[in-house]
Every structure is written in structure tokens, then in C-alpha cells.
């Protein structure tokens, strides 16, 4: 087994975590320690067994420490191939360095603060990356430690094996090159003025899920580090089975939607689409209305609330339907006790305020990744443009804005029927907008919900007037849509023929 038992260590650290542990170990092993600047001073407080790099090289630091380890005696000692370069090293009067313990200036931490451009540039490390790259390249003969969290593991192996194995040295080398790839990318992104690159983000943990969308697919949940709030990925799970991949996707869709609602709101999601949404004077009433939109689809769904859930609501849910997940910002004690009667229901506590550590959405495509901004655009009544002869009533405007909020979370092509801030029919994911409207109409009639004088939202413009004609035949009184079709005049004329009020938002909400 190819074991390296270091004799000389070079130590230069920005992050001095676990310094005592590693230095105490090196002293016990009688390792020669070379060090620089602040690290040298810190080691001197632990032991006198340390040599300053400038004394070792015979070259004084210069340019306020910018140039100190960039010296042939240092890099020849690290890079020398022990099977071919030792004679040359001896001729020069140099010696080998077989343990490099170095970490880098904290560039990423610096730019996260309110720092000047000059301070950011000054925190681009040069000597550190040069040393660890040299050691990582020569891992056949050199051990490189770039992470203080590795000290304990390495010292244990060193103690038990009287050295460090080839496999460990290779893994430490790979870790350095991964570190350098991320470090360089962060600098590149900063100079480019970009902070929204996928490689800039770290995760605090990874949870292996039972399986993915289907049982033959494996899946994991990665949670962003440094989250300040309880989000879907790091929710407090008060009870229930382990969350599945589909549970998490549906829970996120439900939570996104319910957070958009103003009053007491409830959203029921099935297969990532809202199947029932309502606002009311209370959470229990909102749930009742949302459920009545589509009780069949609500079975086995995800239910999200934007206010504290009480025992009355919990009891009705338990009595009325099978549910996979309940999400809310809080629960009354009695509600938790009620849900505990059905042990498999997953009960999540999530903050209404959410973190946004990665501002955007990601989608894998063949050969690459698509990245886009989050769809955060909201519309208020002042931004709406009435294009029809008839103006909507104040009540219709309230319903139209509510319908528009819901349409944003329905898969395209999306049509949403609303009456009194209750969805009464939702058509989702169809290739034809007219078919989506027919499905919304069918859903309403299946549940005995009156469409006459309801309003309709469409996530994108109507390319032809047939969608308007279909809405009119169903009894729709007002429509909200983006506008922007080359046939807008024809669409508006159709609305006027049917005495339908029509508002343009100027904003589209496709959701694929």
C-alpha cells in the first residue's frame, strides 16, 4: 500500500478552525512546520516548533504580503517527483514539502458583505491556490488539506496507518480541484456582475427519498444552506409518513398559490395543479368552498392554508376526505390532536415568509439547463385595462383578480372559472384553450356549481374568438386575459356581442 508519512508541513490559513488539533498532532509527530504571517503568529501561541516561510526561503515578504510563498524553494519542494527530482532538489539546496495545509482568502464571504470592489479584488487569493493546486497535482507524494473539517479524519488515519494512503490523498486532491473550480467560478461571476449562477449555491443537506416521480426512479431532496425561514424543503413535519417526491412537488405548488391569497385562503392541489381554491371569512369556510370545486380530484390531494388551522377544520377534513399532506403557518393544539387520529397524514408547518436563496427556476434539457427568473409579477386593479364596451362591476373585478392569481399556478393552457372568490371550474394542461374552457365548464356542471355570471381567467391570450363564444355559452360574465393576439379586435368584438366585460393585464402566466 502506497503510504506517505509526511516530515515537513506548510501551513497557511485564512480559516483557522481546528488549528490547535492539527498543530498539536504535528508537534507530537515531530513534523517540521513552515508558516506565514498571521498563521505563523497563531501557531507560535501553540508551539515554538514553527519556522517562518521568509526565514526558510531567505526571501522577505513584499507588497504587504502579496508575495511570500511564491518562491521556487516552496514550489519545488511541493512539486518534486520523489522518484526523479530529488537529486536536482539536493543540488539546489532545497528540501521536500510533503504536507500542505492551506485554505483560501474568503472571497465569497467578502462579496456577500457590503464591500468595495477594491476589497473584493484584494480577497482574490493567489498564493493559496498555487500551493494547493501544486500539492493536489503531486498527490502521489504529497498530502493536501484544504478543509479544516478533514483534520480529525486525516490524523486518525495517519495515527492508525503510520501515514496517509494513496486513495485518501487522491480524494483530497479531487477536493482541491473541486474547490478551485467553485472558487474561480465565483470570482468570474462577480467580475461578470452575475450572482444567479447555479454553481454559486450550496446545500446544507441531502435527503434520499423513497423514489422519484415513479418507483423506478431514484430521487433526493437537496436543501439550501443558511435558510432563515421554514420553507417546503425544510418544513417542520409535525406528523406523518416520509414525504415523497410527488408530495414535495405538489406541496410546493399548493404553498406557492395559497401565499398569493389575501384573506383566509385554502388551496387544494392534485398532480401539481390547483383543483380547488377559495378565499372566505374563515379558514373552515375557505376549505369547504375549495373542496366543493372538485371533490373527486381533492381525494388524495394536498391542502394548503394561509392562516392557522383550527380543530373544526381539522375535524371536517378527517371526516370528509383522504388527504396526503396538510400545510399551514400554524395549527391549534386541538387541530394537531385531531390530525393525529390519522397517523399517515403528513402535517407541515411552514412560514408564510419564504427564503429565496436561488432566485429563479431550473429545468434540465438535452445538453444543458434552462434558467429563468421566478414569475413574481402581480397585477392590481389600477393596472388592468378594460377593452370591452361593458365595464366589469366592482364585485366582478375582485373575482377577476382572484381568478388571475389562481391561473398563474395552473398548467398551461389554463382556464379558471370563479364566482364569489371560489373556483368553480379549472381546465388545465390542454393543447387547446377551448378544450380547457370546456373542461372548466364540465367540472362546474359535475358538481352542480352555477356558471352563470361567473368570471373567467386565461393565462394567455385567445388566438381565436371560439374561446370567447364558449365562455358566453357557459354563462361567463367577465374575462381577464393578457391580450396581445393579432386578432384582439376580433376577440374584443366577440366579447361585446355577448355583453361580456373584458380586462387585459398585459402580462402572460404560462406554466409548463
Per-chain topology:
Elements: E1 3-4, E2 8-12, H1 19-28, E3 32-35, H2 37-44, E4 51-52, H3 53-57, H4 72-79, H5 86-92, E5 99-102, H6 107-112, H7 117-122, H8 127-137, E6 143-145, H9 151-161, E7 164-165, H10 166-192, E8 203-208, E9 220-224, E10 236-239, H11 245-258, E11 264-270, E12 273-280, H12 283-293, H13 295-298, E13 301-305, H14 311-320, E14 323-328, H15 333-339, E15 346-349, E16 361-365, E17 368-372, E18 385-386, H16 394-407, E19 415-419, E20 422-427, H17 433-446, E21 455-458, H18 466-474, E22 478-481, H19 488-497, E23 501-504
Parallel strand pairs: 2-3, 2-5, 3-4, 5-6, 13-14, 14-15, 21-22, 22-23
Antiparallel strand pairs: 1-7, 8-9, 10-15, 11-12, 11-13, 16-17, 18-23, 19-20, 19-21
Helix pairs in contact: 4-8, 8-10, 14-15, 17-18
Features:
23 strands; elongated; Cytidine Deaminase, domain 2; alpha/beta; 19 helices; Rossmann fold; six-stranded mixed sheet; 512 residues
Report what the structure shows:
38% of the residues lie in helices and 20% in strands. With 512 residues, the protein is α/β, with parallel strands linked by helices. The strands form six sheets. Strands 10-15-14-13-11-12 form a six-stranded mixed sheet, sandwiched between helices. Helix 4 runs parallel beside helix 8 and helix 14 runs parallel beside helix 15. The chain starts with a strand and ends in an 8-residue tail after the last strand.
Highest CATH level, the class of the largest domain: Alpha Beta
Tally of alpha and pi helices: 19
- Per CATH, the superfamily of the largest domain is Methylglyoxal synthase-like domain
Beta-strand residue percentage: 15-25%
Mean pLDDT: 89
Basic shape: elongated
Query: What is the helix content?
Result: 25-40%
The total of beta strands comes to: 23
Amino acid at each position: 500500500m502506497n503510504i506517505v508519512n509526511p516530515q515537513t508541513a506548510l501551513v497557511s490559513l485564512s480559516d483557522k478552525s481546528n488549528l490547535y488539533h492539527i498543530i498539536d498532532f504535528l508537534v507530537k509527530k515531530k513534523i517540521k512546520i513552515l508558516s506565514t504571517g498571521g498563521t505563523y503568529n497563531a501557531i507560535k501561541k501553540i508551539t515554538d516548533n514553527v519556522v517562518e516561510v521568509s526565514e526558510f526561503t531567505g526571501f522577505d515578504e513584499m507588497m504587504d504580503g502579496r508575495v511570500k510563498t511564491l518562491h521556487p524553494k516552496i514550489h519545488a519542494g511541493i512539486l518534486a517527483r520523489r522518484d526523479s527530482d530529488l537529486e536536482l532538489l539536493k543540488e539546489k539546496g532545497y528540501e521536500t514539502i510533503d504536507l500542505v495545509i492551506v485554505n483560501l482568502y474568503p472571497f465569497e464571504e467578502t462579496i456577500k458583505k457590503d464591500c468595495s470592489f477594491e476589497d473584493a479584488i484584494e480577497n482574490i487569493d493567489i498564493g493559496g491556490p498555487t500551493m494547493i493546486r501544486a500539492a493536489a497535482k503531486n498527490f502521489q507524494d504529497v498530502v493536501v488539506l484544504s478543509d479544516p473539517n478533514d483534520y480529525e479524519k486525516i490524523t486518525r488515519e495517519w495515527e492508525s496507518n503510520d501515514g496517509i494512503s494513496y486513495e485518501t490523498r487522491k480524494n483530497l486532491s479531487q477536493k482541491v480541484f473541486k474547490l478551485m473550480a467553485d472558487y474561480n467560478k465565483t470570482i468570474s461571476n462577480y467580475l461578470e456582475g452575475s450572482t444567479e449562477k447555479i454553481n454559486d449555491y450550496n446545500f446544507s443537506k441531502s435527503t434520499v427519498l423513497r423514489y422519484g416521480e415513479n418507483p423506478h426512479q431514484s430521487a433526493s431532496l437537496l436543501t439550501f444552506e443558511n435558510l432563515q425561514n421554514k420553507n417546503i424543503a425544510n418544513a417542520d413535519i409535525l406528523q406523518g409518513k416520509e414525504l415523497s417526491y410527488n408530495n414535495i412537488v405538489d406541496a410546493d405548488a399548493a404553498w406557492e398559490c395559497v401565499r398569493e391569497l389575501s384573506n383566509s385562503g385554502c388551496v387544494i392541489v392534485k398532480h401539481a395543479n390547483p383543483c380547488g381554491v377559495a378565499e372566505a371569512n374563515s379558514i373552515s369556510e375557505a376549505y369547504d368552498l375549495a373542496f366543493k370545486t372538485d371533490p373527486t380530484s381533492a381525494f388524495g390531494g394536498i391542502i394548503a392554508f394561509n392562516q392557522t388551522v383550527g380543530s373544526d377544520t381539522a375535524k371536517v377534513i378527517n371526516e370528509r376526505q383522504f388527504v396526503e399532506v396538510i400545510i399551514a403557518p400554524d395549527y391549534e393544539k386541538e387541530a394537531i390532536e385531531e390530525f393525529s387520529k390519522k397517523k399517515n397524514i403528513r402535517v407541515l408547518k411552514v412560514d408564510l415568509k419564504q427564503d429565496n436563496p436561488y432566485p429563479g427556476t431550473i429545468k434540465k434539457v438535452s445538453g444543458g439547463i434552462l434558467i429563468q427568473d421566478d414569475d413574481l409579477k402581480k397585477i392590481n386593479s389600477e393596472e388592468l385595462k378594460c377593452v370591452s364596451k361593458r365595464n366589469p362591476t366592482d364585485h366582478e373585478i375582485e373575482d377577476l383578480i382572484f381568478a388571475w392569481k389562481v391561473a398563474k399556478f395552473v398548467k398551461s393552457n389554463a382556464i379558471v372559472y370563479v364566482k364569489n372568490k371560489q373556483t368553480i371550474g379549472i381546465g388545465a394542461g390542454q393543447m387547446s384553450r377551448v378544450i380547457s374552457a370546456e373542461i372548466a365548464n364540465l367540472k362546474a356542471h359535475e358538481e352542480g356549481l352555477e356558471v352563470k355570471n361567473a368570471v373567467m381567467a386565461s393565462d394567455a391570450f385567445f388566438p381565436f374568438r371560439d374561446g370567447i363564444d364558449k365562455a358566453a355559452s357557459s354563462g361567463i360574465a367577465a374575462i381577464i386575459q393578457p391580450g396581445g393576439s393579432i386578432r384582439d379586435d376580433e376577440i374584443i368584438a366577440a366579447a361585446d356581442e355577448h355583453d361580456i366585460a373584458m380586462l387585459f393585464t398585459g402580462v402572460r402566466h404560462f406554466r409548463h
